[in-house]
Amino acid sequence: MKILVVGNGGREHAMAWRLAGSPGVEVLITRGNGGTDDVARAIDVAPTDVAGVATAARTHAVDLVAVGPEVPLAAGLADRLIADGIRVFGPVQAAARLEASKAFAHEVMAAAGVPCARSWSFDDATAALRHLESCPLPVVVKADGLAAGKGVVVATRRDEALAAARAFMVEDHLGAAGRTVVVEEFLAGQEASFMVMTDGEHVVPLAGARDHKRIFDGDRGPNTGGMGAYSPTPLLDDATRDAVLASVIRPTLDALARRGIPFRGVLYAGLMFTADGPRVLEFNCRFGDPETQPVLYRLRGDLAEAMVACAEGRLDRVPLAFDPRPAVCVVLAAGGYPESPRTGDAIMGLEAAARLPETRVFHAGTRRQADGTVVTSGGRVLGVTATGADFAQARARAYEAARCIRFEGMQFRSDIGASVG
To answer: Which of 46, 130, 146, 155 could form a disulfide with 160 if both were Cys (CB 3.0 to 4.6 A apart)?
Structure first.
């Protein structure tokens, strides 16, 4: 079986690595990165090129396309592949609006009765600013569309909230993504990431995880795409998982189905565990990054078969399980990230890190030069992932491997998973 992985970051490296472990599977990947050559064959097509990916899928006679990032899904890649008779793991464009439009997500949640933050949507800057002049603080200001992690501001001061709305709606910092703004009440509590695989009818929950978004220890500094993650999280025990399935996941899938929108792929609910119970912060329509790295590292079962079953509507026939041992992923980021990451720096110590037990280094923002040197090519460079008998051992292994690696300006948090052991 040939599977084409769309994307070339850390999430896609983890997907390709796990798929390559399925019997009889050959993995292809769109362009890849400096670490994917050992598990996948790169093809020269951009992940965001919908027509190009569809052509490549036909040319290489792939049996399944597994889509990693949200942008091609929001652009209708799954629709194009389905029209061409190609199986795809990932939702159609209408379903991907759950992530591509925060206003749409709130509309669906309201119809489904899903617990979430109260919200107000504005496509008029004057109205948005008027609301922010008097609403309670703190407040969350979100660009409606996809903004690569740069479209959310948690404002503790009035001037911060107003500046965010002006930047999005008046100054056009995010283009079309920010011309509609969603204002949400601030929710206090602990966060967790809950992902499920679904064929639109059957649902298989994946292991829970926790992402760390802020750049610095102690959840300080600006938001990033994610500086590390761990799995499982004690917030999502079996009883809570079942409650979230009943109150969030299934009502959302049912609400989409009533609109004639099937959802096949991964539905990701970002949750805040408040004093009143779990509330949805956001939906994603794909695997999270970097949560995918520790979750798939713990996966036991045939990921390729599960993805095909999702595409064919028979997910109930595929067993998946998870290693009971925890996993921790520490992201090594480039100097200047997240504002202005530097690139082109040689990465040393990858071989030493790879020799450590129960450890895997997933590449994200890297590329391999003609002479074999691996250099940085993006903000989040590597996801050093390890497992252990307990969280203390998993963290120790991940940080031991992280400290084997060096490149100019390298930065990472030292507290990933510290709160759980």
So the answer is: 155
8 A C-beta contact, residue 182 and residue 127: no
- 166 with 192, same domain: the answer is no
Whole-model pTM: value is: 0.96
* Strands (DSSP E) found in 79-218: 88-89, 119-122, 139-143, 152-155, 181-185, 190-198, 203-205, 210-211, 214-216
Same domain, 74 and 145: no
Instruction: Read off φ and ψ for residue 382, nearest 5 degrees.
Output: -140, 150
State how many domains the chain has.
Answer: 4
Q: Mean pLDDT across the chain, nearest whole number? A: 96
Q: Select from 297, 149, 277 the least CA-distant residue to 231.
A: 297
Domain extent, residue 169, equals: 124-179
Closest CA to 243 of 213, 271, 278, 272: 278
CB 85 within 8 A of CB 91: no
> What is the token pair recorded at 380?
């989040």
- 421 pLDDT above the threshold of 80: no
Tens-place pLDDT, residues 293-348: 999 999 999 999 999 999 999 999 998 999 999 999 999 999 999 999 999 999 99
CATH number at residue 376: 3.90.600.10
pLDDT-based confidence at residue 414 (cuts at 50, 70, 90) = very high
DSSP 51-96: HHHHHHHHHTT-SEEEE-SHHHHHTTHHHHHHHTT--EES--HHHH
